[in-house]
Amino acid sequence: MTEMVDISGITTRDLVAQDEIEFLYEIQALRAKLDTAKPFYVYMLHKPDFTPFYVGKGTGSRILNHESDARNITLRSHKLNVIRAIHRAGRSVVYLLDGFFDQEKDALARERELIAEVGRHDLGRGPLTNQTDGGEGTSNPSLESRERRAATLGGLSEDTDRRAANQFFASISGRRASVPIKPLGARRLEITTPHANARSPRERMATALVAAAIASGRMIAVGSILPRLFEMNGHPLVIENGVSRDMLKAGMITIEAGATRPEREMFRLTETGYAAILRFIRRRKLIDLGVLEDA
After folding, report:
1. Within the chain, what is the greatest distance between any pair of CA atoms?
2. For residue 189, is pLDDT > 80?
């Protein structure tokens, strides 16, 4: 037996006016709901303007773990960046309990349905920071999930990493024929030196720096230190040699001293680099990604 709220066909702003939908701001009110709920539930996390940014399936107090994770600066993901941006603005995450379920399989099915309806940001289909299609509970992983893991263990991890790099890059600036972030090990890395010829800032350079900021949980600002090597959802990615040299020549970055290997390089964002990012990528987009302060 399930209890669900139908949100199909209405916008998140419309949801506020729906009597049957209750957005929860207070943690105590949320806990009270969970205490009387069925064992499994599906929930959505929203920004203060009611834009949804994450869908999940939970038991117990699972829904509250995300904000706790965001306070751990060693953890990095798009979802956590969004939560940190909300906290920095002095605002609160808005919670919605979408439905309660007796059976986990029903909750997983609803989670998958909601993610498909609202749309994943990394696929360019919506605002959600979810990195999978859902429906993959650890107690009963889907066949698709098991096959994907088996393929990775069987030696296809490079293809998986390349696909992850391309999707991650596309989620920031749209699909490109040439993506300047690559899986670690795909090509031999070189210590970054300036390109021999003149270079000017380009969108792909700006996007590579934003990708590094998102994955490392750092903000875009003059003087920000961004890693050349970073990890996104378990995939080690690196800014390629060519674009690193171009950024240095264009004056977008300087290289922090001390790196003895290319993958350990740290890039310091210059005023030129900061201005280029704002020129090529919309300010609202950067704020939504959680890497720019909402001034």
Report:
1. 68
2. yes
